[in-house]
Amino acid sequence: MWHSEKFARSEFSWNPEGEPHACGEPSSFITGKLRFLRSYLRTSPSPRLFLRWLLLFLMLSALLLSIASANESAYRAELDKACVGSRVLSVVAHADDDLYFINPSIDEAIARGACVHTVVVTAGYVDDPNNDARQRGLQAAYALMLGESGLQWRHSERQLAGKIIEHWQANSTPRIELSFLELPAGAHDDLRSRARPNLYRVFADDAATETTGTPMQRYNESELIAVLRAIIESYDPERLLTLQATRAYPVRHSRPVGEGDHPDHVIVAKLTMLAAKDLPRLRHIIQHDDYPIQDRPANLSAEQAARKTAILHAYCLQDRRGCADPERLTPDCDARNDSHWGAAWLCRHYPSPVARPAPIKR
Ligand SMILES: [Zn+2]
In angstroms, what is the span from residue 284 Cα to ligand 1's centroid? Predict the structure, then answer.
């Protein structure tokens, strides 16, 4: 109950104290150096030496900011050239949520020549923060969707809203992008299952958490919203796709079947909605129902289900935990299924557009 009250507050009356930082604020690197200079000033007997340090620090900061800004300008210019069709940005909790719940939308967007960019907020699994297998899995799945086996990827670290974002772009075309924020993942049935803050505690308690990747970043809730907003503004998508923001969580096996949802999914969707609030150029936001679709009627054609399964299979060959058994992955399209949840998801797709104010002309 608490989380829905919080969402209502954040969604409809913006708290200025929690307002996102503007893109281009000093990075955590710079704030770290400022802390060092403050302590130096308190202890150093030599003001002239301090002034030299200060000058060096300011020059270094200006250089870093101008490099980041030039990189962002080049990135946007490349997108403007490549994305003559629409741009589709997906924000999901885990690598594979896009394949299980948002597809076939991403696959169809790639087929019609659109640019797609998928942002994954957490890394790894609740008991294993290593993200390598999940990243490789998504790269294999997007290579299959693009129809390029052996697709190579270009890695970079983008700086947005004071954070460093791990970013991959297909080598052969700028149309396909993946970004990983690498916050620690939570369990589907336990809100406080980890000693260090996971996504639920970042959202519920505003407890800052550390990312699991290198370089390590620290995020609290408003910083996470600011980064998501900066990614959305920078990409300027026509369609923003995410998971369902209104489900109850966590998954409780005592609940009626099909009711409980993964906390990471719901929280990422809520934060994405907050990040996208009042962006005037964004035309369409579409949420996608996820775990509970297992109990809704199958609604994909046999051909669509087979394609979705093939894409998941490519993913699970790299991350075998993503499927119960990658070698025997088959859609379960019965009205009532008792098999692995993933099998039921393969022939179901429940997008729901969110009402938006009339868009400003692009
Ligand atoms: Zn998930």
Answer: 23
- Could you tell me the CATH number of the domain that includes residue 275? 3.40.50
User: pLDDT: is 55 or 179 the higher one?
Assistant: 179
Q: Per mean pLDDT, which range of 75-84, 119-128, 230-239, 240-249 is the poorest? A: 75-84
Give this prediction's pTM. Answer: 0.80
- The answer to whether residue 36 scores a pLDDT higher than 90 is no
Beta bridge partners of 157: 166
Distance (Å) from CA 236 to ligand 1 centroid: 25
- Ligand 1 centre distance from Cα of residue 136 (Å): 16
- CA 299 / ligand 1 centre spacing (Å): 21
Joined together, the tokens standing for residue 274 give: 């907050």
Is 40's pLDDT higher than 60? no
d(CA 22, CA 9): 21
Q: Could you say which DSSP state residue 155 is in?
A: E
With a cut of 50, say whether residue 163 has pLDDT above it: yes
Compute the radius of gyration of the chain from its Cα atoms.
21
What are the tokens at 263? Answer: 């906390």
Is the residue at 360 inside a domain? no
Cα–Cα distance, 255 to 164 (Å, whole number): 39
What separation in Å is there between the alpha carbon of 212 and the centre of ligand 1? 17
Q: Determine, yes or no, domain membership for 214.
A: yes
Burial of 67 (C-beta count, 10 Å sphere; 0-12/13-18/19+): exposed
Tally of domains in the chain: 1
User: For residues 227 and 159, what is the distance between their CA atoms, to the nearest angstrom?
Assistant: 9
Token readout for 208 is: 């800052």
Q: Distance from CA of residue 254 to its chain's centroid?
A: 30
Longest CA–CA span in the chain (Å) reads 77
172: in domain: yes
- Does some domain include residue 8? yes
Q: What is the pLDDT of residue 14?
A: 26
Residue range(s) defining the domain that contains residue 103: 2-22+86-354
Q: Please tell me which residue, 42 or 159, carries the higher pLDDT value.
A: 159
